[in-house]
Amino acid sequence: MGKQGIWQCPSCFCYNFHLFCIQKIVNAGLSSQQYPSWSCPNCHTYFPFSARPTEYLCFCGKTKDPQPDPWLPPHTCGQICDRTFPGKCGHKCTRECHPGPCGQCAKTELLTCFCGKDQQMLICGSSRYSCAQPCGKPKPCGVHTCALPCHEGDCGACQETIQKPCECGKVELVGPCSSPLSCGTPCKKAKNCGHHVCERVCHGGDCGACPGSLPRYCYCGKKKIVKPCWEEVSESCMETCHKLLECGIHRCEERCHKGPCSKCREVREKRCICGKKTKKVQCCMEFRCEVKCKNILNCTKHECGQRCCLGNCSACPRACNNLLNCGNHRCQSTCHAGSCQKCPLTMTLYCKCKKVQKTVDCGKKMILPHLVDKSCLGEHKTVQVPCDTKFVDCDIPCGNLLACGNHACTLPCHYVSLRRDAQYFLKEKKKEGEEEEFEMVREMPPDTCMDCTSPCLKQERPCSHPCELGCHPHNCLPCEVPLKFKCHCGKSKMNIPCCKTLDEKELELLICCGHFCDKKFQTCNHFCELRCHPGECSPQECTKKVVVKCKCNKIKKNWTCMKLREEIQSQKLASYQTDILPCDENCQKIS
């Protein structure tokens, strides 16, 4: 499958399908009208028919028909993945082109805890956190502080338990600091009369005046009743009310009663307001005839039109709304006779460059532009043009340094949104991972220089491998070309990035496979028990057990191979042998 085109599912990232097989499954006897969608054979995620695979792409999607490379994993292009991580951070994957999902963004950002006491560098996308310290923010009471562990949102009302008087001040109660306390009993404070007490349940503020201490009359107001507040009174004098009704002619014939008098129901002949008609109606009713007033109003344009008008017609209530002489505004006065006044407003006119202004009556035209010195889009030269000229271009090539920092833009003179020079690439970044921000100088449509398409030609690497990146401003990345090495013991082969082979000590550690050496010593025929190691195996450190005996094999002892070698060297024997023990008297007796 490494030499044949494959298809990777964008949902489950499974890539065990030949491109030809997937196309055959999708296209065999199907059409977008009959089957508007198709699904992945592995995860069964549905895709529109228009999204059927038509090209063989590498895993990151940058290279079409990637060629097999013995130094790269199959179906990869060797470039930086550069796919955007899932989520809202907007960062891109910096790994080399790889199968499967890009995982989680590993960049960090400085976040503050809820209470603001602590800051931590957390992985991109993390939410604010709790530092677990006491919050310490002041409560609404202004006396206590929040004792909860660092938390999100408001601290809430103060729940500290304190002893304080109730609202009426009779007893001391224990309760929350922020809540008023009520004892639940009547207030019982003396009223201003000195005879009554407040019957309201425990409350704050003034108790108010005693209702019985105010002057009291009967309902009709004829009879004043003077009694102490603690004595009840009969509030009706039982006489005829005789209050003047709203009509101003008749009086109330009811007995002294509570509340307002009823409307006058006496029927009499009344004349309408304009005086043209009469009719018998109830006294409380207003009579208006149906005759409309035909007087011309002060505007000399409209009739009054009111029903049963007295003749003193008011000014025309309509708005004039005629267009004024300026042609921009309408008359805001009420409808009037004669022509409208000229527009009272003035306006400040500017030339196109906003540097010359003039205050004129509303409706005047724009003032003429004046000549100004203006640079061309690429800021190569300055010419005199009318101030309303939007932009000037020349035939000189742009010449601005490209993003690579090595080549200049060769496009014709155009607007440069980001001016680069030799000092631009020497400026330090304000924050790690963020480029320094530059202020836009002109308010013009954004434009950029061409992209540099040259390969990297720097000779910075100590090895012979070229830089895989395109032309770029900074130092080349360490060489990641894999080199094949055998381990020290020769059992394993491993691929090591070229950049890690420059240091001999580091290389010796990297090519250690971790297995037992197992090389055979030439003298003792034992095997080396050390882990894979550089250099020759040392037989002087052999710890295998050997049986050492005398010449007649009567005396036998268990020694380590290392001890045997030391004894051989001390006796200056020519070869490795085990019968080096001297015979004793018992050996001679037995023999």
Helical amount: under 10%
Order of strands across the biggest sheet?
Answer: 1-2
Alpha-carbon distance between the two ends? 78 Å
Determine the structural class based on helices, strands and strand pairing. mainly beta
- The multimeric state of the shown protein is single chain
Largest sheet: 2 strands, antiparallel
Q: Tally the helices: what do you get?
A: 4
Mean pLDDT: 80
Order of helices and strands: EEHEEEEEEEEEEEEEEEEHEEHH
Number of strands: 20
DSSP strand content? 5-15%
Computed Rg: 52 Å
* Overall spatial form: elongated
How would you describe the overall organization of this protein?
The structure is a single chain. With 591 residues, the protein is mainly β. Among the domains are: 478-537, no CATH class; 543-590, no CATH class. 6% of the residues lie in helices and 14% in strands. The chain has 4 helices and 20 strands. It has helices at 19-27, 504-510, 561-571, 585-590; strands at residues 6-7, 17-18, 37-39, 46-48, 108-112, 119-123, 161-165, 172-176, 216-217, 224-225, 267-271, 278-282, 346-350, 357-361, 371-375, 382-386, 482-486, 493-497, 545-549, 556-560. Strands 1-2 form a two-stranded antiparallel sheet. A hairpin with a 6-residue loop joins strand 17 (482-486) and strand 18. The longest helix has 11 residues, at 561-571. The protein starts with 5 loop residues before the first strand and ends with a helix. Residues 428-445 have low confidence and may be disordered. One of its GO terms (molecular function) is RNA polymerase II transcription regulatory region sequence-specific DNA binding. One of its GO terms (cellular component) is nucleus. Keywords: Metal-binding, Repeat, Zinc, Zinc-finger. This is NF-X1-type domain-containing protein. Residues 89-107, 141-160, 193-212, 247-266, 299-318, 326-345, 404-423, 463-481, 524-544 form the NF-X1-type domain.
